[in-house]
Amino acid sequence: MILILDLGSKCSRFLGRSIRKSKVYCEIVPYSYSIEKIKGKNPEGIIISGGKPNEMISIEKFDKQIFDLGVPILAIGYGADIMVEIYGGSSVKPKEFSYNFENVDVVTESLLFDGLGENVSLWLNKQYAFKTIPNGFNPIAKYEDKVIAIENKENKRYGVMFHPEIKNSIEGKNIIDNFLFKICNCDKKWTMEQFIEYSIEEIRMQVGDKKALCALSGGVDSSVAAVLVHKAIGDNLVCVFVDHGLLRKNEREQVEKVFKDHFKMNLIVVDAKERFLNKLKGVTDPEQKRKIIGEEFIRVFEEEQKKLTNIHFLVQGTIYPDVIESGIDGKVAVKSHHNVGGLPEDIDFELIEPLRQLFKDEVREVGRLLGISEDIVNRQPFPGPGLGVRVLGEITEEKLEIVREADYIFRDEIKKAGLQDKIWQYFAALPDVKSVGVTDGKRTYNYTIALRAVNSIDGMTAEWAKIPLEVLEKISNRIVNEVEHVNRVVYDITNKPPATIEWE
Ligand code: XMP
């Protein structure tokens, strides 16, 4: 395995995913990870990432013992600064953070550049270079007359001032692969087929003949986790799906069809629509709505759990980004959402989190290999509080029905236009607004539907999607013709920030 010591670079996750795509297992850990833990992982190689502009970590905080480990090390950008200083050298720090693809000359034969020729296009900051090269190291690549890559061949230490890990760098990917396969001698062992096999064994050993419970939301992560655990322990897994009445059209039926009919799983569907709507009656404040929905979910789940006996384990669909989201030095890097799938904290279960090691695309691949349909595997994110945060103001059955139908039409037309894999998230919301319109020469006073569609990587920032106007027109026409009580459709063209993706 390869260990990435993260100094805060925004590319570390992408690097992690790209190494796994090369079929080598890797983990991203904060730079402060203890030397004992690093030894415990027994890595075949270590990559020290670049840093975060304006938030450089002081060299004193870095554990120098890493360089005493007998494993190959590739240090990138700020990671290379630290390495070279520890070895007694120095570098020229850039004053501006301006990067481009530039032509780099390979000046010495090195396994790192093996097979790439003498001139390589790489992503770099022209101002950034090594100044004093430490003893034992040699320059291997230059940009103009500046040294931007060095190696200590004997100890397999590599420092690079360019960024091989960025998304569009083809030669960069070849350099990473050279590090993995020619320097660290990694094998291509990390495949999802193997992951499934090992996980099933592991879950069986962990659970024995005891029982496990899973709160199934119908989202990708909990669905894949549930099917995987079901493969391992069969009917000893009980899944609970809470229908809080805030689901999209046909969602409950789809979950029943997939998990009960197709996978023959032990599925309890709790119809809690009335309970939720009663609790939400008259409530208009978004935060209060979220709180009520979250708490009510816990109550329903607790009641179901009490009806079952002998449950020792709780299955959760935690995935690798959730694990690394705890961030450098344990600081939470991403805002935490109130998730309806979030369960009572005082439940006395042992956790089974079979997807803890996987990135989202790996979770999807596992899902496909397990036979879960594309509809579920490719599902877009859906907030825990469901349509509760898409009906603005007070939630009523009538408003839920309107937003559900409009959302269904929106999704249907996006699918028909072949855009479903090109937009990260898209949905309809119902602002608490009525406006004047005209139908068959008569005045109407009805609701407005807001369409929201965004592209994003992780939901933290987002760009509104440039859906072709003729598709928007079709959607709008269908909504005003087919959904009762709607006479106007608007398209939200705000990025996040300053807007959020959801309207509440
Ligand atoms: P916002 O609206 O904060 O949403 O820009 C970012 C992403 O998170 C989803 N979202 C939630 N997911 N529980 C969830 O599990 C929630 O309470 C919640 N609120 C928003 C939202 O759909 C988008 O993908």
UniProtKB/TrEMBL annotation:
> Pathway it belongs to?
Purine metabolism; GMP biosynthesis; GMP from XMP (L-Gln route): step 1/1
GO cellular component entries: cytosol
Q: Where does ATP bind?
A: S217, G218, G219, V220, D221, S222, S223
User: Where, by residue number, is the active site?
Assistant: H163, E165
Instruction: Provide the alphabetized UniProt keywords.
Output: ATP-binding, Glutamine amidotransferase, GMP biosynthesis, Ligase, Nucleotide-binding, Purine biosynthesis
Record bears the keyword Cell inner membrane: no
Could you tell me which PANTHER family the record lists for this protein? Answer: GMP SYNTHASE [GLUTAMINE-HYDROLYZING] (PTHR11922:SF2), GMP SYNTHASE-RELATED (PTHR11922)
Q: What protein am I looking at? A: GMP synthase [glutamine-hydrolyzing]
